[in-house]
Amino acid sequence: SGRSTVVGDASGALDQFFTRAQMHDQLLQREARGVEAAVASVEGMLRSRVLASVRAVVYRSEELYGWARSSSKASSKGGGTSGEDSSLNLVDPEMALCLYASSRALFLTFDRCLGYVIEARGRVRDLLAWMRGTAARVRAWGTAADSVQRKNARNRRISDGVVRRVAAFMSRPMVFSSWKGNGSHDMDHRVLTECIIGMPLTDFFVAGCSQQPRVTDCGKENAALDGGTKYIRSLESTVQSIFRICTILFDRPRSVFAQSLNTLDICFEVEHSIIAIHTRIGAGPHATSGGERDNTSGFFLPKINKKDTSVEECPFWTLLARSIGTAVEFIALPGGTSFELESDNGYYLRANLMIPEGWEVTNIVFYGDDGISSLSPDLNDDAKIREGRQSLGCMMKCIDSLSIEVREELWLFEYEDVVFQKFDFETIHDEVAISATKLGRDECTFLAVLEDEISDAIVTIIPKRRHISTHRRNSQVQKRRQQVNLCGSRGTGGVVTFGAPTSLDIFDLEEDEDNTSSGGDDDESSQEDGSTT
């Protein structure tokens, strides 16, 4: 019954609590079902959505620590014990250990939180069952032996185990306060239910309610994984600690790359208005004896006026295309593992692409497929990376003096046949300079609009042309440079022209215009793509 043999003065209050109108059986039964369903839903969500992720974090951090430790040992055996070798490791083993220790602490904290949820579910179920049975017995107190109240009390009688469990956690002091460690108490985040059942679940979700391992102490795994019960670890504080460690750990590769890369400062004796940069795989791993150029697809092997073994064996190239006056200067910088300004073999390749009269370059963009960004890449680890289509795109502007109209086009052409000239680097104040040496007419490559414009030049290239817009010279379209984006892996290109109105042209750059153009169109219109949008 509601009588207390320990505190007799509380008997009247208990009778009044269990016999009030709101404490009827249907309310308690509905409340028990709702609470049971809610707690079970939370438990199921934690098991299905969070537990696997936390386990994966621990597993991956352990793998990362093992890889970092083995990599550090391998580098120390191979290159000595200098601090420079350890500073070039992409992953710091000590920080990886910190991440692993904090991840395990997160798993242990979450596992303890899940255990609290399960225990709270059982305690709430026992408490509501005890309240329902006690309410029925209080109502049956003083009634006849065969009354309905006595029958209901017998049907809702609970086992002695439930009574002992309820008595066990109800007899303990209520955990209204949380000790912060500095002598103060805080009870704002706790609710009455968890204080009654003695399961402070909200402590797991409030930062600072438990002591967390410092980053400098993470190497002491035993201290980081302390499973004591005096304090409750906070999930929020543990996750924040992991985020701080990850910020330091994964920022290290960028700093290591910045330290290990050999930079080269280049100055140009002739200024430019537009420049584009591109990287290409060289013929080094694909070079054949004798330097034949039978099949150069998949890598870059520049043509030069004289045969040079160093050009054929170069592993990769950095290409620069810049607009200088009526020409586009094409520069190829060889790549290597190191570069010394004092070395005698430093060189670069240069070529001039001459623009037809009346045309002006407004933008330059490289168009290339690096072989890695393909929609269907070769997943074989032993397969060699081979580049796809490679071209150079130029936004051109032609002003018609008669009609005072400005015609803008996108020119696209391959540069494999461009003939380069080899020059030695000139050092100026710890920088290498691209000289202003002029190339003769017979050493330049000419861009021609029509086939009948081909002159007696050594190399003449006829680019593919895409019409962008035609407008008057004083219109607002030409006040802002177009934005051009060419995607070699997909064979498409897009040009945004700003003005009134702003337009977007999208091209299929691999389409054969000669097949799509009608026979009655002139040469210039046949170069335009009719599928632009």
Keywords:
20 strands, 533 residues, elongated, single chain, 22% strand, 12 helices, four-stranded antiparallel sheet
Summarize the structure.
With 533 residues, the protein is an alpha+beta fold. It is built from 12 helices and 20 strands.
Structural notes for this entry:
With 533 residues, the protein is of the alpha+beta class. It contains twelve helices and 20 strands. The strands form five sheets. Strands 4, 5, 6, 7, 8, 12, 15 and 16 form an eight-stranded mixed sheet that branches. A hairpin with a 4-residue loop joins strand 18 (483-487) and strand 19 (492-497). Helix 4 (93-140) crosses helix 6 (160-170) and helix 4 packs antiparallel against helix 9 (235-260). The model is unreliable at 80-84, 210-230 and 513-533 (pLDDT under 50).
